[in-house]
Write a structure and sequence with these properties.
Blueprint: H1 12-31, H2 33-36, E1 63-67, H3 74-86, H4 97-104, E2 110-113, H5 122-132, E3 142-146, H6 154-165, E4 171-177, H7 187-191, E5 194-197, H8 203-214, H9 218-227, H10 232-240, H11 242-252, H12 254-257, H13 261-298, H14 307-355, H15 368-398, H16 403-416
Parallel strand pairs: 1-4, 1-5, 2-3, 3-4
This protein binds zinc ion.
Zinc ion binds next to α4.
Length: 417
C-alpha cells in the first residue's frame, strides 16, 4: 500500500529527510518532551530515555520551508509531511485516520492556506496564527500549511514571524515558496525555518506516476511529462484535458505565425486573450456561487426596520467580495499567461539545443521538426536571443509590467530575432 509520500515524484532526498523528521516528532510525543520544553525548537533530543533515536540535526523542528520550481510538488510535500505528523504510527502510513483525514483535507488540526488572490492579507494570517496556538484536539500537532508563502503581504509576514519566533509547543508551520530568495520569503522568517529543497522531477518519474496513479496510457504519459517540463499537475492536465492540449497547440503555433510587425501584434493579442479566456473559465463559476451565497446570507432585497443599516453593511461586504474576486481573476490570468510563456520558452529551448547539437530530448516532441527548422534558420545565437526574449517577458510581468506591453515587446523580439 503506498504511503503518504508516494506521490512526491523524484524527490528521494526530501522524502528521506521528512520521514526521519516524522519519526523524530513521534518520538518527541512519546517522550512527552513537548509539554516540558518551552518549544519544540528547543527540544532537540526528546529525552534521556531516547538518546539513540533522535538526533537534533535530523530531528524535528517547528517551522519548515519547502522550495522548488512550480509543479515540483511543494504543497504535495507539505501535505504529506503534515499527514505523517498526524499519523498514529508516526510514519505517514496512508491508512490510519490521521493520514486519511489530513490527505483528504478534513483533519481538525491541519489548517491549509491557499491564497486565491495576489497576496495573503494580515487579517487572514492573524486569525490563522491565533487558531494555530490552540491545543491540538487529536493530541498530536497543530499543523499550518501555507501554500505560496511568497504571496504574504509584509504585514502578514510579520504576523507569521511573531508566531514562528515564539512557537506554541505543539504547533508546526509548513511554508511553500519558489525559493528562499528575499523576494520570496523574508530573511528573518527564512532564518527560523528548516529548508527542504525540491528538484524539478525528471520526466520519466512524472510519466511513471501518471501511469500508476492516474491510469494514463504510457505513451500519452511520456509525451505529457516531457511537454509539461517536470510540472506534475500540468502533465496530468495535458494528458487528460483536451482544452488544455488545444491551448498549448495554439501557443506553439506562435513561432510559425510571426511573419511581420502586424502578425507580431496579432499574436500578442491572441496570447493575451487566450489567457484571459482560460482564467475567466476557471473563476466565473466560483464567483457567481460566492456572490449568490453572500446575497442570501445578507437577505438581499429585505425591507422593514433595520433594513437600511443592513444594506449599508451589505454593500461593504459585497464590495469586499468583489475586490477579492478581482484579485483572484488577475492571479488566474497571470498564471495562465505564465504557462503559455513556459511552453513557448520550451520551443526556443528545443531550437537552441538542436542548433548546438546537444544530446538532450526535446521538450515538445510534437513541434520538434519546427524547432529543428528554426535552429537551422536562426543558429544557436538567434535561438538563444529568442529564448531570452521569452524569459525577459516573464520577468517583466513578474515585475508588474502590463502583460500586453510585455508580450508585444516579446513578439517583436521573436520576429526580429
Ligand atoms: Zn498513518
Amino acid at each position: 500500500m503506498p504511503d503518504v509520500f508516494a506521490d512526491l515524484v523524484g524527490q528521494d532526498e526530501a522524502v528521506t529527510e521528512l520521514r526521519r523528521a516524522a519519526a523524530a516528532a513521534a518520538a518527541v510525543l512519546r517522550a512527552g518532551a513537548v509539554d516540558r520544553a518551552p518549544a519544540l525548537v528547543a527540544a532537540g533530543p526528546a529525552s534521556a530515555a531516547e538518546p539513540a533515536e533522535v538526533d537534533p540535526s535530523t530531528g524535528m523542528t517547528h517551522a519548515w520551508i519547502f522550495t522548488g520550481p512550480p509543479g515540483s510538488g511543494r504543497s504535495v510535500a507539505a501535505r504529506a509531511f503534515a499527514a505523517a505528523l498526524q499519523c498514529v504510527h508516526g510514519t505517514g502510513c496512508g491508512e490510519c485516520p490521521g493520514c486519511r483525514t489530513t490527505m483528504g483535507g478534513t483533519h481538525a488540526d491541519v489548517r491549509l492556506v491557499v491564497p486565491e488572490g495576489l497576496s495573503i492579507g494580515v487579517g487572514e494570517m492573524r486569525a490563522l496564527v491565533l487558531r494555530a496556538a490552540s491545543t491540538p484536539s487529536g493530541g498530536r500537532w497543530q499543523v499550518v500549511v501555507i501554500e505560496d508563502a511568497d504571496r504574504l503581504t509584509e504585514a502578514a509576514g510579520n504576523a507569521l514571524l511573531k508566531a514562528i519566533e515564539e512557537p506554541p509547543p505543539r504547533t508546526v508551520f509548513l511554508l511553500c515558496a519558489p525559493s528562499t530568495h528575499p523576494d520570496d520569503i523574508s530573511v528573518t522568517i527564512r532564518s527560523r525555518c528548516r529548508v527542504v529543497p525540491l528538484r524539478q522531477p525528471p520526466a520519466t518519474a512524472v510519466a511513471e506516476v501518471l501511469v500508476r496513479r492516474d491510469g494514463i496510457a504510457p505513451d500519452v504519459a511520456q509525451w505529457a511529462a516531457a511537454a509539461a517540463q517536470g510540472h506534475v499537475g500540468r502533465a496530468r492536465r495535458l494528458a487528460r484535458d483536451p482544452e488544455a492540449r488545444k491551448r498549448r497547440e495554439a501557443v506553439l503555433a506562435v513561432p510559425r505565425r510571426l511573419t511581420g510587425v502586424g502578425a507580431a501584434f496579432d499574436a500578442a493579442s491572441a496570447l493575451i486573450e487566450a489567457a484571459e479566456a482560460e482564467a475567466e473559465a476557471s473563476v466565473t463559476e466560483s464567483d457567481t456561487t460566492e456572490r449568490a451565497a453572500l446575497e442570501t446570507a445578507l437577505g438581499a432585497g429585505g425591507t422593514g426596520r433595520g433594513a437600511s443599516g443592513a444594506i449599508r453593511g451589505a454593500a461593504g461586504q459585497l464590495k469586499e467580495l468583489e475586490k477579492r474576486q478581482k484579485s483572484r481573476a488577475t492571479r488566474a490570468q497571470r498564471d495562465a499567461l505564465d504557462r503559455a510563456l513556459v511552453d513557448l520558452a520550451g520551443f526556443y529551448r528545443d531550437a537552441l539545443t538542436m542548433a548546438l547539437r546537444a544530446p538532450v530530448a526535446p521538450v515538445h516532441t510534437d513541434t520538434a521538426a519546427l524547432a529543428g527548422a528554426g535552429a537551422q534558420k536562426w543558429d544557436a545565437e538567434g535561438s538563444l536571443r529568442r529564448l531570452e526574449a521569452v524569459l525577459a517577458c516573464r520577468a517583466a510581468i513578474e515585475a508588474n509590467v502590463k502583460p500586453r506591453i510585455a508580450v508585444e515587446a516579446m513578439m517583436l523580439a521573436l520576429w526580429k530575432g
